[in-house]
Design the sequence.
């Protein structure tokens, strides 16, 4: 059975009021992301004091997409300004996997219980939840979605971007992060990983290098946005786990991984 969910119809557990600023010319034309992160903080304080603010449902504050950056899902490749990007973040980060691990990943990829369908479904549902869009899913995914949506990380937040494409201006590599949100705790850059069992939630490693790649690319394109923490959200049946890391440490791990990857590529071309 399929279930349809409308996030806007659910009561806000934190008692925050939805406000629409989309008709305000100043916001649309002149305000920077940082200015409105600060404004959102003040607004949150007002809401906690039960000041009634009336308006239509608020639309997420999203970063402007990077122009001329396209993604082709079938080949999993990016094109920027008419040129193919040499590498993607996933390729670089999976380079250290053993042949056995890569084979195992491919063997468990397809089918109704494969990680590809599970990952695509949970990602799309979280994206819809964070952008206040209705979505439809099969009942069997409730075991993953219920603890994921109940995670405190996603309470009292402002969504800045989801499923957002980025490209490194200088290293010819591109990728897409899952979400960027702001709260009283600051700006959080996140990557969602799904696993097939409750036990696997504990064993899943953080997406340190991936998050480092996205944090570095954000610095290049959106220097006004300061990422305060990077998180890997591990979603499993009946359980969700959040792993928090320092953005600079993630960036350093990414730079090391990219250096090793490019060195291997260069060595291969020497023969």
Sequence:
């Amino acid at each position: 059975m399929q279930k349809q969910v409308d996030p806007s119809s659910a009561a806000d557990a934190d008692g925050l009021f939805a406000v629409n600023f989309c008709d305000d010319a100043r916001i649309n034309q002149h305000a920077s992301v940082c200015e409105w992160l600060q404004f959102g903080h003040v607004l949150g304080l007002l809401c906690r004091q039960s000041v009634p603010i009336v308006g239509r449902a608020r639309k997420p504050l999203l970063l402007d997409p990077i122009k001329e950056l396209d993604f082709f899902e079938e080949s999993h490749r990016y094109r920027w300004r008419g040129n193919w990007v040499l590498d993607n973040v996933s390729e670089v980060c999976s380079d250290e996997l053993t042949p056995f691990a890569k084979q195992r990943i491919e063997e468990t990829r397809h089918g109704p219980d494969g990680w590809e369908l599970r990952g695509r479904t949970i990602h799309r549902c979280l994206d819809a939840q964070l952008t206040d869009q209705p979505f439809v899913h099969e009942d069997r995914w409730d075991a993953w979605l219920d603890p994921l949506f109940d995670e405190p990380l996603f309470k009292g937040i402002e969504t800045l971007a989801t499923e957002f494409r980025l490209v490194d201006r200088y290293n010819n590599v591109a990728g897409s992060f899952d979400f960027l949100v702001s709260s009283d705790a600051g700006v959080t850059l996140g990557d969602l990983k799904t696993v097939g069992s409750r036990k696997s939630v504990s064993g899943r490693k953080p997406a340190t290098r991936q998050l480092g790649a996205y944090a570095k690319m954000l610095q290049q394109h959106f220097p006004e946005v300061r990422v305060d923490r990077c998180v890997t959200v591990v979603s499993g049946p009946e359980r969700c786990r959040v792993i928090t890391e320092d953005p600079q440490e993630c960036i350093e791990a990414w730079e090391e991984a990219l250096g090793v990857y490019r060195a291997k590529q260069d060595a291969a071309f020497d023969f």
Notes: The chain has one domain: 62-269. The chain is about 40% helix and 25% strand. The radius of gyration is 20 Å.
